[in-house]
Amino acid sequence: QQPVQSPQAVILREGEDAVINCSSSKALYSVHWYRQKHGEAPVFLMILLKGGEQKGHEKISASFNEKKQQSSLYLTASQLSYSGTYFCGTGFYGSSNTGKLIFGQGTTLQVKP
Amino acid sequence: DADVTQTPRNRITKTGKRIMLECSQTKGHDRMYWYRQDPGLGLRLIYYSFDVKDINKGEISDGYSVSRQAQAKFSLSLESAIPNQTALYFCATSAGTGYLNTEAFFGQGTRLTVV
Question: What parts of chain B have a pLDDT lower than 70?
Answer without folding.
Answer: 1
